[in-house]
Amino acid sequence: MSDARTSSEIERAGMKPWLKKTIAVVVTLLVLVITYFVLAAFLPRWWAQRIAGLAEGGFSRGILWGLLFGILCTAIPLVLLVWVWQVRGWKFGRGVQIALTVVALVVAIPNLMTLSVVLGGGNAAHAGERIMDVDAPGFRGASLVGAIIGVLVFALLVVAVVRYRKRGKDLRAARADLERKAADADGHGTDRAGGAGAAEGRPPEDSSRGPVDR
Fold first, then answer.
1. Would you tell me the crossing angle of helices 59-86 and 43-55 to the nearest 10 degrees?
2. Would you call 64 exposed, middle or buried from its count of C-beta atoms within 10 A (0-12, 13-18, 19+)?
3. pLDDT (tens digit per residue) in 83-106
4. Is pTM beyond 0.70 here?
5. Which of 43, 70, 162, 209 is least surrounded, with the fewest CB atoms within 10 Å of its CB?
6. Is the distance from CB of 80 to CB of 104 less than 8 angstroms?
7. How many helices (H) and strands (E) does the chain have?
């Protein structure tokens, strides 16, 4: 009896559920804020150095890499996000949606890091801008143009898929309409044959029977 009373008192003396949730949320927010500042002080400069290594100070190489990252890292995440919506009715749709969302975010990381260099206000972002200006000229502008092209490619792809599906639906509807008309025509032909036989005082001929000997 005393053991049960002691355990119930311990449970009552513990933290309440809402307090535990509040602490968990606060800790998560603190971790995210610290992670943001750490990454903001490191990623822009690191990303600029990686792009500088790819471009090797060449204007044409900077433009080509900018277009490549801009197009692919914009169009592919958009397509994956559309698939996130398409698979919502699947048996394991929730897991597939999470996986596609993670892949979309990973593919979009290069564009996001370029944005951290362009839009960032910290020392690392300014250092990244200087590195790109010297060792990867044209990359930032080409990335913007590539992102616009990626959006246009995605829009054209969506239009093409929608038109293809509409065409398939129209073809199925037309085929069903032709089959219905053919069935109606066969039914009317049978009715006319039966009516002619009844008018002559004889049943309609059965095509399955052979000629009758007279």
1. 120
2. middle
3. 888 877 777 778 888 899 999 999
4. no
5. 209
6. yes
7. 7, 0
